[in-house]
Amino acid sequence: MERRPSLGIRLNGVSKAFGAQLALASVDLEIPQGSYVAVMGANGAGKTTMLKVIAGLAAPTSGSVTIAGIEMRKAGPRLRAQVGFVSHETMLYADLTARENLRFHAKLFGLPRPREAAERAAERLDVAHALDKPVRALSRGTRQRVALARALIHDPSVILLDEPYTGLDEAAAASLSELLEELATPERIVMLTLHDVVRALSGPRRLLVLSGGRVALDQPVDGSTDEMAETYLGLLRAEARR
Amino acid sequence: MKTDALQQPVGELRPEGAAGVERGRRRLWGTLTLVSMPVLLAMALVYAPEDANQGAAQRIFYIHVPSAWIGFLAFAVVFVGSIAFLATGKRRWDDIAASSAEIGVIFTTAVLVTGPLWGRPVWGVYWTWDPRLTSFLMLWLIYLSYIVLRGYVPEPIRRAKFAAVLGIVGFLDVPIVYLSARWWRSEHPTQFVVESGDLPMQMLITLLVGVATFTFFYLYLMAVRLRVGRLRARVEEAEVSR
Amino acid sequence: MSILAPALTIAGKDLRLEMKTRDVVASVGLFVLLVVVTASFAFPTGGEGREGIAAGVLWMAFLFAALLGMGRSMAIEKEDACLEGLLVSPAPREAVFLGKLLTNLGFTFAVELVILPLFVILLQLEPAGGALLLVLSAFLGTLGLVTVGTLFAAMAVNTRGREAILPLLVMPVSIPVMVAAVKVSEAGFAGTWTASTTSWLLLMVGYDALFLLVALATFQHVTEE
Known about the structure:
The complex is a heterotrimer of chains A (242), B (242) and C (225).
Chain A: E1 8-18, E2 21-32, E3 36-41, H1 47-55, E4 62-67, E5 70-71, H2 76-80, E6 83-86, H3 98-108, H4 114-124, H5 140-152, E7 158-162, H6 170-183, E8 189-193, H7 197-201, E9 206-211, E10 214-220, H8 225-241
Parallel strand pairs in A: 3-8, 3-9, 6-7, 7-8
Antiparallel strand pairs in A: 1-2, 1-4, 4-5, 9-10
Chain B: H1 18-47, H2 61-88, H3 91-123, H4 131-151, H5 156-187, H6 201-241
Helix pairs in contact in B: 1-6, 2-3, 2-5, 2-6, 3-4, 3-5, 3-6, 4-5
Chain C: H1 4-21, H2 23-42, H3 50-78, H4 82-87, H5 93-122, H6 131-156, H7 166-190, H8 195-223
Helix pairs in contact in C: 1-5, 2-3, 2-5, 3-5, 3-6, 3-7, 5-6, 5-8, 6-7, 6-8, 7-8
């Protein structure tokens, strides 16, 4: 395993406007290596935009995003090689098989042995049995796992997930939670957006609440009941302020 | 205040006296237009000598040619605005490009209308595939596709980007269109050739007055249209913050 | 990161996808075939200048094929946010453009390969020595169309009108390369090659080069959110 330079995500005064609306308003944020962050907020508060800006899909209107001290704007391809992005859409070609999709992404990410990488990723996400079926024919849950496999196939150091728990049943959610826990090692950064407070506080180690494009709350998740209650109240207060 | 997070004001923040300066400019162009229009008409109808071959119908030349000049100039402004927008990201450039396109269509339409009006009495046909006229037809079509495209993208910044790309491609296309129209015409010659020989002094002066008049008119329309654009942006913003 | 490798990967993926579904070939192929057959009824089998008419109709058919194919190819990427999948990869934006360009070129050439001989037969033309010109015009003309079309398709699928506005964007801008292609094809059908034919070929080369550069330079702005 090659040694990677110390990674940390930094947002410097990042704003993102969509016309007259500011999805992100001059956000300053530092997310060091080893973070496992839950991002919450009402719809339109900027959660998805924040992830997209970090993933290099959206360019900030002002400010800059750096990963490992390198600006996304300047070295996009190099940085994107370290990022895995999961959205609520699968990014899979419905008419190709899971294997073909995974191999394609492995090749796109420049992995030396795409076939093996695809099989490994499928096994890790427990979808090896579905490898040779067209994605269209898979159940929703399996499809989501293949999508996850796609995002993780290149063993990224930064994993971004946009509302990954939406639409999952208890078992699938628990399984995802376990997987994220596994992935959230000191060398990686895991960031996810979600609406479920309980999930946000059981697993992730840091809670961000966005409101109106700004960071309304930024606290470590410590686990004591008082702490959690206060965090929750803080969240409600932040929402009421909008 | 939403806009202070961005480097560029969306519509609200401008220096104190700016509105006054702009009104002054509008008035200047408007007045100059009002003054020079009747002068042009007088010169075109009376002062300029009648053309020996073409008769009175030739006088439409003094509307036709200046319209063409401004139609082309307006598109050059679209081109410059498009490049400037992509380079700087400042919305003002997009406003300029969009305004110039809308106004350019008007002048280009005038070219396409006066062309046949001139052609029919003088050469007996409404349309010739004269390279210049053909180029203006293409220019007109490109303008229209630009405006239609803008209508199909609701989000302002994306709209600006898309329009800018089309503006650049469209403008670079025009000389190529002209060239191809010339070559095509040289292979299918018709007897209707627009002579560009030496103009007698009086005609030249009238033509120059025509160009000046239409330039003032263009500048006036631009000033008005830019103001409308700004007001519209303020309304958009106000609606969003409600 | 290189540009060619990801581009070929993307084009390869599209080829595989097309072989499985025959989505684009089926819809476009049939349509273009109908255009050609209809045209062969519509014009005189003898007479002067039919090479010119033939060339015109041929390129209308090619234009439709290209537009439909490019629209469909981009629409596929829009489904399930597959385009985003390409954009979060390390592939540079230019590589994504190039990949889709190769896909669209490949597809359109495939259609042309079938249509062109059919045309020659149905319309009883005798190109003889003009075959090279026909190939050149098909290649250069299609390249120009598809370069501009791929760029605009990426825009079109992100508008309210989706890929339906693609023809509206492509057609005005592609007129010069179409005219040139028709002219050269006409010469090809007639078996002649004049100085003017060379000029038209050069125009196509210039057009293709210019807009390839512009497309590569501006593609990132089109795909950025």
